[in-house]
Amino acid sequence: MKISLKLFATLTEYLPETSRYTNIVELDVALGSTVVQIIEPYHLPPALVHLVLVNGRYIAAEQRANEVLVEGDVLAIWPPIAGG
Question: What is the mean pLDDT of residues 42-49?
Fold first, then answer.
């Protein structure tokens, strides 16, 4: 099935080089794939996987291993952001 993965801010450096300027990569993943299974191959440091959304809906850290994606989903991830 096809989904979109969007990484923001400093996480874009974990995307394939061709996707870093658009911050999005289209993926073909197995049916039943969870959020954790999709991000594992990208070796994102756990401390940087802060805000996770599926189609704009927040997925808490304790739910990510069980949150199954479906065809057409958009998985978006942000690192912690500080500012003032």
Answer: 92
Question: Residue 12 to residues 30, 77, 78: CA-CA distances in angstroms?
Answer: 23, 10, 9
Distance of CA 10 to the CA centre of its chain: 13
Provide the pLDDT confidence category of residue 83 given band limits of 50, 70 and 90: low
Q: Is 67 helix (H, G, I), strand (E, B) or coil?
A: coil
Find where tokens 């440091």 sit: 45
Instruction: Give 28's contacts (C-beta < 8 A, 6+ positions apart).
Output: 1, 2
DSSP state at residue 62 = G
Q: Which amino acid is at 12?
A: T
